[in-house]
Amino acid sequence: MSRYRTPTRRSKRYVHEEDFHTAVHYARRYPHWVAELQIEPDTSKAITYEQDRVQTSNTYDPVQATAIRRAEIAKKVDMIDKLIHECADGMDKFLILGVCYGSTFKDLKSAGIPCEHAKYYDMRREFLCKLAERI
User: Fold this and answer.
1) Which domain does 32 fall in, by range?
2) Is pLDDT of 53 > 60?
3) Which of 46, 51, 71, 102 shows its CA 20 to 30 Å from the CA of 35?
4) How far apart are CA 70 and CA 14, in angstroms?
């Protein structure tokens, strides 16, 4: 994981250091959440085997649990997408690659990012600070 400079107390985007790092790790979960949403849910576990008896889905409904989990993940992905769109100034793809997938600015520059490093790092800090406030 690349190093992130936490905003200082004098910064206009100050958040506590622990909250900032929580936001960094939260954003790093984005690729896993997107991949989980793209696969078909496995609902074949409608019958669970506990001890010596078969328990049907009267008390535990795996389809419902899967649907709830997918709804929670979709909500998290949607929140990150909206924040990136809000902070990226038309460079959504590059901010997602940099923050969520861990690409360095050098990688983004070779991919064709249309700005210099100061503007990119400012967008990244703004996104992470807003994310830290929302989670």
Assistant:
1) 17-41+75-134
2) no
3) 46
4) 32
CA atoms within 13 A on the CB side of 26: 21
Number of domains in the chain: 1
Distance of alpha carbon 19 from alpha carbon 25, whole angstroms: 10
Beta strands in the chain (DSSP E): 48-50, 53-55
Cβ 20 vs Cβ 7: under 8 Å: yes
Work out the percent of the chain whose per-residue pLDDT is above 90: 0
Higher pLDDT, 13 or 2: 13
3-state secondary structure 46-66: CCEEECCEEECCCCCCHHHHH
Q: Which amino acid is at 82?
A: K
In a domain, 7, yes or no: no
Residue 85 in any domain: the answer is yes
pTM: 0.71
**pLDDT greater than 60 at residue 45:** no
Residue 52 in any domain: the answer is no
